[in-house]
Amino acid sequence: MLEPARIHETAEVSPRASLGAGTRVWHQAQIREGVRVGEECIIGKGVYLDFGVIIGHRVKIQNYACVYHGAEIDDGVFIGPHVCITNDKYPRAITPEGALKGADDWEVGRVHVREGASLGASSVLLPGVTIGRFALVGAGSVVTVDVPDHGLVQGNPARLRAFVCFCGHHLVPQERQDDRMAMSCPACGRRVEIPWPVWAKLDQRAG
């Protein structure tokens, strides 16, 4: 049976947030109202979780990452240090008339990080993107479009460079099977099938 969530004395957690059993919240983290954090998560030092953010089970969020309103993080996701998940495509402090912008003056951009994906240190996710299952975002990358399942993206803007296994290592192509590319992992031996249209995008960009 899991222990209740543990919160460091310097962390600021809203009484209107919920934390699952076994979750640990470390120094100077801030978790706002309406946040839902699942079981066995690690919320590192200085992490900021904006209001209404949804975090699944067994998620690791490293030091000083910022996850803003509109983000949904599925189970088993890794968020590296200083990652920023944004929510405003057209950021302005003021309206065209010069007034300070309020809640009704902008539209929230959603971000969805799916099961098992990893976001490298200091990467930035712009609003409106989905990161696929077990995808990997390289450190320092700026993601502006969706990332496919098992996709490895790098750069600014981030581009599809390769595909990775459940364990994180690069996949090696084996053979085309109708509408899929069969790939294998030299590290753990697993096989992964990538839809051919997705694989073809990789070929075009690599060329």
What can you see in these coordinates?
The protein has one helix spanning 196-206, and strands spanning 6-7, 12-13, 18-19, 24-25, 30-31, 36-37, 42-43, 48-49, 54-55, 60-61, 66-67, 71-73, 78-79, 84-85, 111-113, 118-119, 124-125, 130-131, 136-137, 142-143, 151-154, 159-163, 172-177, 180-184, 191-195. It is mostly beta strands and 207 residues long. The chain has a domain at 65-163: UDP N-Acetylglucosamine Acyltransferase, domain 1 (3 Solenoid). The chain has a nine-stranded mixed β-sheet. A seven-stranded parallel β-sheet has the order 2-5-8-11-14-17-20, with no helix packed on it. Strands 3-6-9-12-15-18 form a six-stranded parallel β-sheet, with no helix packed on it. The longest helix is centred in the C-terminal third of the chain and has 11 residues, at 196-206. It is globular, with a radius of gyration of 19 Å. The model is unreliable at 203-207 (pLDDT under 50).
List the helices and strands and how they pair.
Layout: E1 6-7, E2 12-13, E3 18-19, E4 24-25, E5 30-31, E6 36-37, E7 42-43, E8 48-49, E9 54-55, E10 60-61, E11 66-67, E12 71-73, E13 78-79, E14 84-85, E15 111-113, E16 118-119, E17 124-125, E18 130-131, E19 136-137, E20 142-143, E21 151-154, E22 159-163, E23 172-177, E24 180-184, E25 191-195, H1 196-206
Parallel strand pairs: 1-4, 2-5, 3-6, 4-7, 5-8, 6-9, 7-10, 8-11, 9-12, 10-13, 11-14, 12-15, 13-16, 14-17, 15-18, 16-19, 17-20, 19-21
Antiparallel strand pairs: 21-22, 23-24, 24-25
